Known about the structure:
Layout: H1 4-8, H2 15-22, E1 31-35, H3 39-45, H4 50-71, E2 75-82, H5 90-113, E3 117-121, H6 129-141, E4 149-156, H7 158-171, H8 181-185, E5 198-201, E6 220-223, H9 233-244
Parallel strand pairs: 1-2, 1-5, 2-4, 3-4, 5-6
Helix pairs in contact: 2-9, 3-4, 4-5, 5-6
Amino acid sequence: MPLDSLLASIPPGHPDEALVRQVNLEQLPAHVAIIMDGNGRWAAQRHLPRVEGHRNGIQSVRDTVETAARLGCQVLTLYAFSIENWKRPLTEVSTLMSLLKRYLRSELDTLLSNDIRFRVIGRAHELSPDVREELDRAVTRTADRTGMIFNLALNYGGRAELVDAVREALRTGMTPDDLDEARFAGLLSTAGQPDPDLLIRTSGEMRVSNFLLWQIAYSEIYVTDTLWPDFRRRHLLEAVLAYQKRDRRYGGIKDPHAVIGAP
């Protein structure tokens, strides 16, 4: 079965095995996007510096990326660093960038072995040269992979992305008559990818935080109280199973009689 790779990574009798066997392969979300929230809160609950939450969140990234790839998702997008995050203390930002470089170095072989193509969305050109070098290396090394696309949103903001798309349209000489939704989507950082079917937010917060504003127009939203450093394979599987129980209508009505006032 297509889930053999995922099942092979789970010890026999582990509770996650039962969750995997409940997954309907015909209803997998093609694109899963995750707002990774709660690192600071996780650290505060343990009376640790905020950066320790970010350090422990690395394992959650590793677990989530590998699980999504083995599950058969086409695209996984993780919100790692927003444009607004530059307002955080310099030491925290510096640690985040160091952890990013360390992750890319340590996980590149894993990405390659799992046939994962790594991409960056956001204003990566504004990042420091040493960070860009690591990002470019991972993008280049995985460019020929044909499995899951792993987007890392760095120095990203949904509004900024829309502004950048409009600027690109103007730069290339497009007129208002040239633009429709499909052409505009082609100017975004996720051009050519399916929009997220499932948007997951950890830590229980009920907001989208300027993330993929165009792309999540019809995404199913799943919020878990689990803080990001505690997020593991089980939590992703639970989100997918919850998604598969939803009735997606895209603004339409499945039952024409199920309208207010209908007999």
